[in-house]
Task: inverse folding
């Protein structure tokens, strides 16, 4: 047991004054210390709403994204207890750190894992899911209501719709219900593509399928009234890269949306990433509205049977609806 670390945890818990904290830190107390409960000084301060302590610890280099044994971060503790000032301070720290380092999403892809060779591996189709060769879910049927809501958003202006990532075809089936003038689908996995052809997607009058990675087929694309993005085995960086192309791909007045599974295993990290992606889109000239959709009821434990990783563990899904800031004014 580290005496100074323990003392710092106690001081953080009791909301000690600035001097006391400084003396401890200057004497070498480890701001990243985990006590017997697996909690850091920052988690203790956040849990008890001592915003001044949170600021000092963050300033001294305490990691904002450390996790407790139950996978909660300091921000989760502040959020759960309703400590607004501590929460805002941690949120700001998280956004700043991720803007500079992008540490979480660079090591985690959409479904929360590293999947470099996904496009070369076999996939397994079943009625309620599409899995990769390691039994990680590429797409699951519980997302159907979400996909229907995404389709409604991107089809709101009619016209020409682009969807990236066919998966189980849930969003594309929903898009078809809006009878778009033209419906372009990009799919990169050979077996998913084959299945699209087998199930008649290649024969629909208004559908154009482009086989390949979106990164490679960009020169074949036009501009669209609605765009949806939902790939697998990619990182936040890929989503960011895709966003750089929006000014060319999205027509004036168009609507863009994407599957918002960012850090879907941790409520606070998810909030950080919702802010981050909105900020980055704003820098490109797009406003983002996040529409809350409750998902708790369609996500019982049985849904995850046979699936290697739960890529979504939160009660509410925030559906992004993005449009040019000029259009939204
Ligand atoms: C999560 S699923 C999409 C689910 C779909 N939204 C639905 O409603 O069923 C992701 C799909 O993106 C495809 N994909 C992965 N990387 C891609 C890329 N770089 N370009 C195009 N498609 C990609 C995968 O093969 C998979 O079919």
Result:
């Amino acid at each position: 047991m580290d005496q100074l670390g323990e003392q710092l945890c106690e001081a953080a818990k009791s909301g000690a004054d600035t001097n006391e904290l400084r003396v401890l830190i200057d004497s070498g107390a480890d701001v990243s210390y985990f006590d017997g409960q697996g909690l850091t000084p920052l988690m203790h301060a956040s849990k008890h709403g001592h915003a001044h302590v949170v600021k000092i610890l963050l300033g001294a280099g305490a990691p904002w994204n450390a996790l407790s044994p139950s996978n909660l971060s300091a921000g989760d503790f502040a959020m759960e207890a309703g400590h607004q000032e501590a929460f805002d301070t941690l949120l700001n720290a998280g956004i700043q750190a991720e803007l500079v380092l992008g540490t979480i999403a660079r090591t985690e892809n959409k479904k929360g894992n590293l999947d470099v060779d996904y496009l070369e591996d076999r996939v397994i189709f079943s009625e309620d899911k599409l899995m990769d060769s390691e039994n990680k879910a590429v797409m699951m049927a519980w997302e159907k209501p979400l996909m229907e809501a995404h389709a409604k958003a991107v089809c709101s202006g009619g016209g020409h719709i682009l969807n990236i990532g066919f998966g189980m075809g849930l969003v594309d089936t929903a898009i078809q219900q809006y009878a778009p003038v033209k419906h372009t689908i990009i799919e990169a996995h050979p077996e998913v593509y084959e299945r699209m052809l087998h199930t008649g997607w290649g024969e629909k009058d208004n559908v154009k399928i482009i086989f390949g990675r979106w990164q490679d087929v960009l020169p074949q694309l036009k501009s669209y009234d609605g765009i949806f993005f939902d790939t697998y085995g990619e990182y936040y960086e890929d989503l960011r890269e895709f966003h750089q192309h929006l000014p060319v791909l999205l027509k004036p007045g168009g609507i863009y949306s994407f599957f918002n599974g960012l850090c879907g295993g941790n409520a606070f990290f998810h909030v950080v990433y919702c802010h981050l992606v909105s900020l980055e889109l704003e820098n490109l000239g797009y406003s983002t509205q996040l529409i809350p959709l409750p998902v708790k009821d369609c996500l019982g434990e049985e849904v995850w049977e046979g699936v290697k990783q739960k890529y979504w563990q939160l009660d509410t899904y925030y559906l992004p609806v993005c449009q040019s800031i000029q259009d939204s004014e």
Notes: Residues 150 and 257 are 7 Å apart (CA to CA). The first strand starts at residue 123 and ends at 125.
